[in-house]
């Protein structure tokens, strides 16, 4: 099954754009630049949407404007409107349990404490979608997580996060064309 919707999770606005929690937005912005798409505000989808052609497949990119913890509302609205199956969705998000400089692709599963995923699963009533998990590392203490994700990574972290975003862009055609196993082999061995 091909991917028809790629969602970058994050928080809208300039105050948040450099934060670790916004790596999903970073990826979608880079994808739109690579495939010459332009984001437009779409109030009916509670977010910004771009349409791109990736390896002959028409793919919508979505950056919800609902803030991370309410991402499901935006995702559900576009999924319902275009009748997109959960298996045709790739959600790109920050992952505390993975070190910066590491990226993993996963199909299905729980939310792992990620509020954006939690709300998405609740809104869709389904957890069977693909995830591109961009490692941001963990602050070490659970009480520091909220502050950690709402701050910018340091320079060395930015460099390795940008590297894995680039690596992920290099395999996006495989992911979109249902060659996820091949993309996983490439990403998970780098």
UniProtKB/TrEMBL annotation:
Mitochondrion found in the keyword field: no
InterPro entries for this protein: Pept_tRNA_hydro, Pept_tRNA_hydro_CS, Pept_tRNA_hydro_sf
GO terms of biological process kind: protein quality control for misfolded or incompletely synthesized proteins; rescue of stalled ribosome
Molecular function in Gene Ontology: peptidyl-tRNA hydrolase activity; tRNA binding
Keyword match tRNA-binding: yes
UniProt superkingdom: Bacteria
Site keyed Stabilizes the basic form of H active site to accept a proton: positions: 94
Predominant place of localization: cytoplasm
Residues at the site labelled Discriminates between blocked and unblocked aminoacyl-tRNA: 11
Family: Belongs to the PTH family.
NCBIfam families given in the database record: pth (TIGR00447)
Stated name of the protein: Peptidyl-tRNA hydrolase
Species this protein is from: Bathymodiolus azoricus thioautotrophic gill symbiont
Gene: pth
